[in-house]
Known about the structure:
mainly alpha, disordered C terminus
Amino acid sequence: MASxxxxxxxxxxxxxxxxxxxxGYAGLxxxxxxxxxxISLPPRRPAMIILGLLGAALLLRGSADPLTxxxxxxxxxxxxxxxxxxxxxxxxxxxDRGLIAVASAAVTVTAAALVMPESFAQLDATVRLRxxxxxxxxxxxxxxxxxxxxxxxxxxxxxxxxALLFPALVxxxxxxxxxxxxxxxxxxxxRRRDALRPxxxxxxxxxxxxxxxxxxxxxxxxxxxxxxxxxxxxxxxxATLYALRGVGVLLVVAGxxxxxxxxxxxxxGVLLYPLVMAAAFVIGLSDIWFDIRRRWAxxxxxxx
Length: 304
């Protein structure tokens, strides 16, 4: 069965994912890499180059907000590494390039953090304050209600978890933002409709499981707070990838559901998020050894 490439609905879904995980800087994570692609990649038409330059100039205007400055710098680094990976890796497969770009950007920023620890400690404190402040209106409203203290404490802990996993959230949103930028570039500059494969085909190199194992070891072995946080972020990032892989497996096994089923699945996913995430992760992880989609495909009846 020939699979269809990701269309407008998929691209919009990826943009929503970018916005959800980026804590407010989705536009930078999509548009700055897109500007770099329009400037640097074929066909290099004058109109595309001018559009990319104008976009980059508008997005890089001065700002007094340290988080905005970080988001700009990070988006530029990710976009630049994506161009490097594009030049090195052949073919049109996005995911390999995207993962390499995000991993390379993470190594680059980590090296910078080792050179300038004070600046990144200040950035981390700013992130914690910004996330906590974002919950304050809801905390004030809930604290006045009966039994609201439990919810207030849960939301405060949620903000702390977000701050702890901020690097992983940025990495996830950067990967989805790159995917949106790549989709737009292929559609606009190359007029191609096969920029991204559908979620049902989402998979990556099985060797990535070693990152999951490394994250687990860093969390379990008492090596200090820095190592534990690094492990937590590795676990969060790789677990999200395996959960998406698990969703891809389920889509193949169950077949592409209709809009009503999709809406119902979305509601269930929101209400039972931890359980759904855990189940999808287990399925995605087991796909390393069982290759469920390949085993399932012959059992399906051929298309008419």
